[in-house]
Write a structure and sequence with these properties.
The chain has 576 residues and is of the alpha+beta class. The chain is 59% helix and 7% strand. It has 22 helices and ten strands. It has helices at residues 2-9, 11-33, 42-58, 83-96, 99-124, 129-140, 143-151, 155-172, 180-193, 195-215, 219-236, 238-250, 280-295, 302-317, 324-330, 333-337, 344-362, 366-398, 418-426, 431-436, 460-469, 552-575, and strands at 411-412, 437-438, 476-480, 483-490, 496-498, 507-511, 514-515, 521-523, 529-532, 537-545. The strands form three sheets. Strands 3-4-10-6-7 form a five-stranded antiparallel beta sheet, with no helix packed on it. Strands 5-9-8 form a three-stranded antiparallel beta sheet, with no helix packed on it. The longest helix has 33 residues, at 366-398. The radius of gyration is 25 Å and the shape is globular. The two termini are 30 Å apart.
């Protein structure tokens, strides 16, 4: 009884329990089956996070080059791909020292974040605690949030923070209701997590901004706040956009693989949710929400109209209603940057779910409120149960004949058996699994523009596999003082050797401690260097990277700015 009274007096306790229990339930299949789920993106992201975990473990920090992951090729990934979140997850992996523990803890963390951000958004627009809690559970068990657990997609981390973006966007409609710091932090977090999610978030904020400019009286204040927030965001994300500018200006890089946009859309369906189908639960919710909004348009608030309208726009953009085949031809960059228009549905989910809650609050018909809440409760229950069984199904595959759930482009060395794969990933040595199962992704690897071959006779993935995975390298690699040390033995002075690394514009190569002469090095496909030995016997190549303007001091200043703003927000929050 005391616990019930305490929950009634402080509803945050009930919310915490709802979110925690839902998160634990969705991770329970992995805990009970002791299963690691190796989905489509597992190998790529495991390499990213392993590299950072080893940096913490060894103290050999290298912000730009991967000296431990990705076959120790000194390629750049983390510096331009959500570095803030990557270092947090890498630290968690370093503490866990187990892929299974890491997956369970990181999934639970994602569920808690998504649950709380959705709850914050729901309550900030005036939804009841009961509806807010159901929204949190629906969001936590949605396809795109579950994507990290079952497929190791990274976008779910961005979508988990999307409610914060929508919360600020709604405040645009009343320009005096948001702060510069609030807007800047929400966008900066998204940039530090996932760049594509950040771009989509800015687009959504732009749509809210247009509505705000039309609606608010003090248009100047709105514009000044947005501009000031943009300036602060540039400072808070200097490490991300600075790195992107540097490597893209100085190098020609392989982009992420180009997809057929028209084949990667999301559509209403009556089955389960997947990459191309929203699933029956969400399809019914979306259709119901849009229909109710249209039917009650005259009595609904501007906030409800704006949220539902923008959500509908995002839903249409994610679907095959859009001529994505034509758009892909006109703007080819989208084929590799956006890749899957279906990704936009995750943001539509946030908007339309809150829009439904607002309709429940604003349509003053007792029977409508009663039956809509009942419908929402049933949908929530089905969504959580369906997601639980999805994780359970993936977990059973680990202990069966398919420990790697998705083997597309995955190279398993020595035709390792299922038990060998399981033992490698269960090992306390985190490197064993990612060395046994490798994926030849070429994202952000430099292209040698002067090389006439450059892998054109085969796909980039095949070229990468041939150069860095399948070749007998005959070199030793180790890391010292944040630098990659590559050594090999030459039979005679001047003997040529292909070194399995890739070289960027600002990569520094030292041979036996001295700068390499031009005549002793040539760059081949994917900027893989061929080096002439400067002596018979042991030769040592030291590989490092020196950024033009990102260094220890700029990183410290960026970190101090984050710390100061976070401390300020905590102090102000406690005062309130």
């Amino acid at each position: 009884m005391k616990f019930k009274e305490r929950t009634m007096k402080n509803p945050n306790v009930g919310t915490f329990l709802v979110i925690l229990i839902t998160g634990l339930l969705l991770t329970m299949p992995q805990i009970l089956n002791k299963s690691i789920i190796l989905g489509a993106d597992a190998i790529f992201h495991f390499n990213r996070l392993y590299d950072i975990a080893m940096q913490f473990d060894s103290g050999n920090f290298s912000y730009f080059t991967s000296n431990y992951g990705f076959q120790q090729t000194a390629r750049i990934v983390n510096a331009v791909y959500g570095p803030g979140l990557a270092y947090i997850l890498g630290f968690i992996l370093f503490i866990c020292r187990s892929w299974l523990k890491f997956q369970v803890i990181s999934s639970l963390l994602l569920f808690l974040i998504s649950g709380y951000t959705m709850n914050y958004l729901s309550t900030s627009v005036g939804l009841s605690r009961k509806v807010a809690n159901m929204n949190s559970m629906l969001f936590m068990s949605s396809f795109w949030v579950m994507g990290w657990t079952v497929s190791q997609m990274f976008m779910p981390w961005g979508i988990a923070v999307a409610p914060l973006i929508v919360a600020v966007g709604i405040k645009f409609i009343k320009s005096d209701k948001f702060t510069i710091v609030e807007l800047s932090i929400s966008v900066s977090l998204m940039i530090q997590i996932h760049m594509l999610s950040a771009v989509i978030s800015v687009f959504i904020l732009f749509l809210f901004f247009i509505i705000g400019i039309i609606n608010v009286k003090d248009k100047l204040t709105l514009c000044v706040k947005v501009i000031a927030a943009a300036g602060l965001t540039l400072l808070l994300t200097f490490n991300v956009w600075g790195s992107i500018l540097e490597i893209y200006i100085g190098n020609k890089l392989y982009p992420p693989f180009a997809a057929n946009l028209a084949m990667k859309t999301m559509n209403l369906s009556v089955g389960n949710a997947d990459f191309n189908h929203i699933g029956i639960i969400v399809s019914v919710l979306f259709a119901f929400e849009i229909a109710i909004t249209i039917m009650n348009w005259s009595i609904l608030s501007l906030t409800t109209k704006a949220v539902t309208g923008i959500g509908t726009v995002m839903l249409v953009l994610s679907s095959n209603i859009m001529p994505w085949m034509v758009i892909g031809r006109k703007i080819p960059m989208l084929n590799s940057f956006l890749q899957f228009p279906s990704r936009l549905e995750g943001f539509a989910f946030v908007l339309l779910l809150v829009g439904l809650g607002l309709c429940i609050e604003e349509v003053n018909e007792p029977s409508f409120k009663k039956y809509t809440k009942l419908f929402l409760m049933i949908a929530t229950l089905f969504s959580v149960v369906q997601s639980y069984y999805n994780v359970q199904s993936k977990s059973e595959g680990w202990n069966g004949h398919q420990p790697i759930a998705n083997r597309t482009n995955v190279i398993v060395k020595n035709n390792a058996s299922e038990s060998e794969i399981r033992n490698a990933f269960r090992s306390n040595d985190l490197s064993k699994g990612i060395e046994l199962a490798e994926k030849p992704t070429t994202d952000y690897v430099p292209i040698n523009v002067n090389n006439t071959d450059n892998g054109k006779s085969q796909s980039a993935y095949e070229t990468y596999a041939a150069l860095f995975i399948n070749s007998k390298q005959g070199v030793k690699k180790e890391v010292k003082n944040g630098k990659l040390i590559v050594s090999w033995y030459a039979n005679h002075k001047g003997e040529s050797k292909k070194i399995p690394i890739t070289v960027y514009k600002n990569t520094i190569l030292l041979m036996n401690g001295s700068k390499l002469l031009k005549g002793n090095i040539t760059l081949g496909t994917m900027n893989m260097p061929t080096i002439k030995a400067i002596q018979s016997g042991k030769n040592v190549l030291t590989v490092s990277y020196k950024s033009s303007f990102i260094n220890g001091w700029t990183m410290i200043l960026t970190g101090l700015l984050w710390f100061s703003i976070t401390a300020f927000k905590l102090v102000m929050g406690r005062k309130r």
